[in-house]
Design a protein that fits this description.
281 residues; alpha+beta; 11 helices; 8 strands; disordered C terminus
């Protein structure tokens, strides 16, 4: 009888069951009904999945990957009809954030950098810069020296094929003026000059596929869960799980997903565990 070796993702999911405080995650990977079968490609059928976008190393990575496909399709569709997309990353300076309350407070602070839909100044900016839609993606990284570092990736869908430098500067200056301690750190091209080192710029998206992979890459904590587990960093995982509870991983402008990504993955997944626990993220 041969013993099947678990993949790193399966191993992480199995280990996460021992650390999680979420009931649905403890049942992820269990048999939905008999028999459980393995396809020729190596995928396992007839098992339940928790679909947690934060607290399950396997489901979170798959959900981020599926979200990335929706975002790429939205950008490609928008650019295909003559629109353009800007990427801005909103973050706070690195601080020594160690526990759950530190992370939650920092996450709330960085989330406040992006305005609500009823903000009058934001609505004026949308009209002036012709911003029709937006997508906001949450991400948090972790380093040993500096601790937690949450940030937001914001994709702005502009109703114009050409984005002038004045528009990019206007968006950057708006965030500097209207938000509390914003630091914009986009990937890609930056404005020249030392004064702009930490203020950044709104980057024009030229590759929807590459941009979607960047903004929806797996959370560092779930991607490196096996390392955390082997290091015995249970407190780190529990802080992350507590701080991410109830927080949305990705936010779209109302009705945008149906317009720009009509073939969305937003549907009930067969075999999904019902969200019985009040702690379900």
């Amino acid at each position: 009888m041969t013993t099947r070796t678990l993949s790193p993702a399966n191993k992480a999911r199995s280990r996460a069951r021992h650390w999680t405080a979420l009931e649905r995650v403890t049942r992820c990977g269990a048999a939905a009904h008999s028999p459980v079968s393995v396809s020729a490609e190596g995928s396992t059928n007839n098992i339940m999945t928790c679909e947690s976008v934060w607290a399950c190393p396997m489901c979170a990575e798959r959900r981020r990957r599926m979200e990335g496909r929706d975002i790429a399709a939205a950008m490609e569709g928008w650019m295909g009809v003559g629109g353009s997309v800007l990427l801005v990353t909103l973050t706070l300076p690195h601080q020594a954030l160690r526990d759950a309350m530190d992370l939650r407070a920092a996450w709330d602070a960085v989330s406040a950098l992006f305005p609500s839909g009823t903000d009058r100044a934001w609505q004026k900016l949308r009209r002036d810069c012709r911003i029709s839609h937006f997508i906001v993606v949450n991400e948090v990284s972790l380093t040993r020296r500096r601790g937690w570092h949450p940030h937001l990736h914001v994709l702005l869908f502009l109703d114009t094929p050409n984005v002038h430098l004045a528009t990019r500067l206007g968006i950057r200056e708006w965030f500097k003026k209207h938000r509390v301690q914003p630091v914009l750190e986009p990937e890609g091209d930056r404005l020249s000059g030392p004064a702009n080192r930490h203020s950044g710029d709104a980057t024009v998206v030229t590759s929807p596929e590459a941009t979607s992979r960047y903004v929806t890459k797996p959370q560092a904590v779930t991607q490196n869960f096996n390392e955390l587990y082997e290091a015995g960093a249970r407190g780190t995982w529990q802080a992350y799980e507590l701080a991410s509870h109830g927080r949305r991983s990705c936010r779209w402008t109302p009705h945008t997903r149906g317009i720009l990504a009509p073939c969305s993955r937003k549907r009930r997944v067969p075999g999904r565990i019902p969200p019985r626990s009040p702690l379900t993220p």
